[in-house]
Design brief:
Organism: Sinanodonta woodiana (Chinese pond mussel)
Largest sheet: none
Protein name: Thymosin beta
Radius of gyration: 57 Å
Main location: cytoplasm
Keywords: Cytoplasm, Cytoskeleton
Shape: extended
Helix content: 40-55%
Subcellular location: Cytoplasm, Cytoskeleton
Order of helices and strands: HHHHHHH
Length: 202
């Protein structure tokens, strides 16, 4: 009995194959390749398998009971008032009567500049042109004069005094200072002062 593959092949081709000389055919070794999955595919399949096992072995007792809170989907008064205002505005625009509009003649203004602006622009163009076309050969060579500004006698004397003061402070000998004993005075009132205050209070 012919297979499905043989039925699809034309009979003439099958006859030619059967009559062919097998000695003229080339021997071909069949190379069987095993297509192994990559590490990424293996890791992904492992992760999917673990997830599937967790879902199948999940304990429903760990779930907490939650009471559903039904919220009122109806709009509040502010939203209703806003919607009414928008609807009224939309209706007024849709049913607006253009006949109520007043006819206005458009005023065409001359956008051209006046004579003052033209003269000013003309001066700027001429100035820019004179700068760009200026002949540098007409300039006279000038040697720069370097002036050395020295301080006057008052400034020199002031700097000298400050330098001597600074030097005197830096080279000051603390051993030349004299030791002074601190004298503590009693701020309490005397007996006469107390008696006098008592008399005043009486």
């Amino acid at each position: 009995m012919a297979t499905d593959a043989q039925q699809k092949v034309p009979k003439q081709l099958l006859g030619d194959i059967a009559k062919a000389d097998q000695a003229k055919l080339n021997h071909v070794d069949v190379d069987e390749k095993v297509q192994l999955p990559s590490p990424e595919v293996i890791a992904q399949e492992k992760q999917e398998q673990e997830l599937k096992e967790k879902v199948q072995n999940f304990c429903k007792d760990n779930l907490k009971h939650t009471v559903s809170v039904e919220k009122n989907p109806l709009p509040d008064q502010d939203v209703i008032a806003q919607e009414k205002q928008e609807k009224a505005l939309k209706d007024s625009v849709e049913h607006f009567d253009p006949a109520k509009l007043k006819h206005t003649e458009p005023e065409v203004k001359n956008p051209l500049p006046d004579s003052d602006v033209i003269n000013q622009e003309k001066k700027e163009v001429e100035l820019r042109k004179s700068v760009s076309e200026f002949d540098k050969s007409k300039l006279a060579h000038v040697e720069p004069e370097e002036k050395l500004t020295l301080p006057d006698t008052e400034v020199i004397q002031q700097e000298k005094t400050e330098l001597e003061k600074k030097k005197g402070i830096e080279q000051f000998n603390r051993r030349s200072l004299k030791h002074i004993e601190t004298e503590e005075k009693n701020p309490l009132p005397s007996k006469d002062d107390i008696d006098l205050e008592k008399k005043c209070c009486k």
